[in-house]
Write a structure and sequence with these properties.
Strand order of the largest sheet: 3-2-1-4
Shape: globular
Structural class: alpha/beta
CATH class: Alpha Beta
Helix content: 40-55%
CATH superfamily: 5'-nuclease
Number of domains: 1
């Protein structure tokens, strides 16, 4: 299963063409793509027009949507954040540690276009889609 981060979905919906959005576009219907509830919020909150919001919501809800944060992931995320800090790495957004931890915990690969995930790949063995 592949979780697609908001960094890729936002580019995708904005029509930004890059290797991440190209991969996503070609993978829809072929790969088992999942959407996390936190990512659903991040993506949908950015739409200004109601029409665009509804169109994006319809597309995103075609994928399996999983709840990402509960007690177990919250504690693992805090531990992972602390471990990264001990290594001298500060991740800018806590939500990225939560997303990465969710993927690590569940054995999912992550498609992202966000440098905050690089330390999670390096130190925590976060699996990512190789482009």
């Amino acid at each position: 299963m592949i979780l697609v981060d908001s960094s890729v979905w936002i580019d995708y919906f904005n029509g930004n063409i890059n290797k991440h959005t190209d991969w996503l576009d070609s993978a829809i219907g072929l790969e088992l793509i999942i959407v996390g509830d936190i990512i659903l919020t991040e993506v949908l909150q950015g739409f200004q027009s109601e029409q665009d919001f509804k169109r994006a919501k319809k597309l995103l809800l075609e994928f399996q949507c999983l709840e990402m944060l509960g007690q177990t992931i919250a504690i693992e995320s805090a531990s992972n954040y602390r471990l990264l800090r001990q290594k001298g790495v500060t991740v800018r957004k806590t939500i990225d540690v939560v997303i990465g931890t969710f993927c690590i915990h569940n054995g999912f690969s992550l498609l992202h276009n966000d440098r905050d995930f690089v330390p999670l790949e390096k130190y925590l063995k976060l699996k990512t889609v190789q482009l």
